[in-house]
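Changelog-linked ticket: protoporphyrin IX containing FE example.
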Amino acid sequence: MADGSSDDAFDADSAILTVLTDRSVIPEPYGHYRDIREHAPIHKAAIGKMWIVSSYDEARAVLRDPRCGNPTPEAFEKGRTGIDGSTRRPRPRESLSMLSLNPPGHTRIRSLVSRAFTPRRVEEMRPIVEEIADELLHALDGGGDLVSGLAHPLPANVISAMVGVPSDDREQLRPLIADLTVGIEPTASAEEIDMADAAGSEIRRYLVDLIAERRENPGDDLLSVLIHANEDGDRLTENEIIVNTLLIYAAGFETTTHLIGNMFRAFVANPEQLARVRADRSLIPGAVEEVLRYDPPVQIDGRFVHEDIEMGGQAVPAGDSIITLIGAVNRDPAHFEDPDMFDITRVDTQVLSFGSGIHFCLGSALARLEGQVVLGKLLERYENWEIVGEPTWRPRITLRGVERMDVRLS
Ligand code: HEM
């Protein structure tokens, strides 16, 4: 509704619950998002102290508002109420990465970790990304499953190379990371959270050994940079290195897998856009931005309200939580012209796909680089791109994408 309130005739609670919990909606949530955005762009859920925002301006404002952030470490330790009313398991404060912290703790860690994500360091990854893409595409020649053949191993190998995980250990870590990321889903079951915790513990054990090895033999990798990062005498503790490496590893992995999968699907569904980028390779960076807008790999972000705020004319008290539906806000017609059209020549792509404000994605430059390299290589090598049969979707909405997609490339 234009004034930002909910339309009484529309059952926003059930529409929102459907989009967040009904796995049959995952392949095509955008019609549901449109209904929610049109009828209830800022909605206070009946369950819990939860708001759901699907309008661009309000979502961006909330993500950037210093009065909003993460729950306190004490609240994480107590356990919280999930979107479906269930209690989320308590998380000890030592397990919290920068993603779950507020200033000043967040500012300190982000500043030290940013030293490992300088534009120079990311640009230095370009030849490595190209080499990995070439090898994988060579093996995929003719076709096969794009996810296991390219979209998954590319970011996994890139982030492993960047962190400094030896090639021989990468296969063993891949399924663990996949299990770990399930923990962030709004409706993860107790078994899935157990699985995520077990995977986290195993990766942690692995990293303890790797850090010890890097202390002895520093390299030019992210782990060595984190071990030696120093700001006015302040250093990251061993635990801070571990939880934030885990975050970088997990965040840099499935997100980019889905960017690649979504990109392929978008171009196959829109052959005229594929022809345009084929004819003019200078459109590649804009094309990747448009994929990020049109079909964002991360569909849900959110904040906890620390001080009373006003959101689109409604009073939101401290203690409430806000979910921002990124997939919906990226198609808000108030911000994007013809939002349901995939148009790689858009100039208005200020997308919220990497979040906004102090938690803005630290790996956005790397993700963009990977997307651009893959698109360039696919264009270079193959005239015809086809999807064979129906892709299988991963049953997840926060990190949304396909887990298997058979393709023909010729
Ligand atoms: C297309 C790929 C990617 C997408 C869509 C994505 C999305 C996001 C989003 C939405 C956030 C903000 C979360 C919030 O507001 O609370 C975020 C944060 C973050 N991302 Fe990414 N990401 C991607 C790739 C990567 C990569 C490749 C890395 C690392 C190599 C990475 C590392 C991080 C980190 C460390 C944060 C936390 C920053 C902070 O809390 O200050 N991401 N990402």
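Closing comment: Example verified and attached. DSSP finds 18 helices and 14 strands in the chain. Residues 12-409 form a domain with the Cytochrome p450 fold (CATH 1.10.630.10).
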